[in-house]
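Minutes, project check-in

Agenda point 3 was the complex the collaborators sent over. CS summarized: two entities, 501 residues total, and the question is how they sit relative to each other. Sequences were read into the notes so everyone works from the same version.
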Amino acid sequence: MKDLLYKEFKLAIHPTCYIFLLMAFMLLIPNYPYYVAFFYQTLGIFFIFIWGQVNNDVYFTTLLPIPKRDAVKARFGVIVIIELAQIVVSIPFAILRNSLNPTENQAGMEANIALFGLIFLMYAIYNMVFLPMFYKTAFKGGVPYVFACGAMAIFVVIAEASIQLIPALKTTLDTLDPSYLPQQLAVLLFGILVFSLVTALAYLKSAARFEKIDL
Amino acid sequence: MKNEREILSVQHLNKSYDAFKLRDVSFTLKAGSIMGFIGRNGAGKTTTLKSMVNLVHSDSGSVQFFGLDIKTHESEIKQRISFAFGGVDYYLQKKLDTITNVFKRFYDHWDEKAYENYINRFELNPNKKVKELSQGMRVKYSLALALSHHAEILILDEPTSGLDPVSRDEILNIFEDVVDSKQASILFSTHITSDLDKCADDITYIKNGQILVSEDKDTFVDSYRLVEGSMDQLTEASKHLIIGCHERKGAFSGLIKTQDSEIVQGIKCSPADLESIMVHIERSIK
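CS then shared the predicted structure for the full assembly.
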């Protein structure tokens, strides 16, 4: 697996994934729907697959002396690393934003711990929709990405609407007040748990599909 | 003297698509030989080759390398073989060095010294990007990678397609050197029959997803004769013996089985070559 991950980083990863990590700076914008800063990286991941098509990545990898499902596992590995990196890189920007300008975000959720929990959920949805759909063919990426974007958009609208419209959620989650830290940590933990489980399920489904298809 | 040991055995391979069927494909490859896999475009060459390395899942049949089944020993077998679609056509923007540094990590028997030798011998610049290589150089790079992990069987899908005659000749010479120095056996698909005239020991001929013949090249070529003459020379009986008969301006030309050539007395017979055999057989089964 170490060698396959090395291959992913040396050959398969698209350069925009590194550039999109810089989108974390968008958390410095005082009033902004911060989900967007994290959305860009899903585009970077999509580019890995499109880049892979152009470069015949699937043939290079599957002709190596490895089990086919390991090719999927390594790709999932690199995606999870990128998603986690996006979140980790965003943390200092969130801290900086809240220290420099501790005013309320008029355009959506605050850049707080609960937001990171919701981002984990958004990435879980992306992984669950995009990846198993892609591995149905290991070739067509466009339609799965459109579906994944649709699913993420629905999630964001529902999450944001619930938080803005339900007073209990608005008070506890859309705030920088440290007294609501336990509730926000609960959202973060829930997000991490769902992300882990859903991504593992998405891997099992994707690997099973990839093993069945003719290349 | 050739080693008659079978190192690859394809038996009763079947695969159905909506518009195409691979039917009961069987052949074997002997150690120390070059086998040409011929057939016109769309005959099933690539599907067969892909089925052999599990890129395509056959509906039935078996493929064994070194006595091991590909379905149960895929990784082990892939350590000992190499499969390439023509030349290297992946990661076009990457330097050869970068690709090699990734590739070699996966092979237990990677031989760095051998790799350096091949790079020098084939005059490959490891700092060049794949996209900067000519088609011939890409095939050579593919061979350098395969031979450096000591692949015992090289399976190549149309390695000479799109090459100029000089590059083709160069690649075929490398094939001969590889086999003569007992480094590997080669199975390569092509529709360029002159490649096979030059270097193949055995021929496997596929037509519409079915193997028409798989045997020693010389025996195969010798089993046919070209015939030509005027239409008056043709009797009803001899007409049926001629394969892919072409009539024009009162004359005819065609192919005949060597064993039948004595029956058609008085008609001019001459030795056939692979191209004329393939053309006439394809014409006859249209």
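Noted in discussion: Chain A touches chain B at residues 3, 6-7, 10-11, 54-57, 59-60, 62-68, 212, 214-215 (CB under 8 Å).
Follow-up: revisit at the next meeting once the mutant set is ready.
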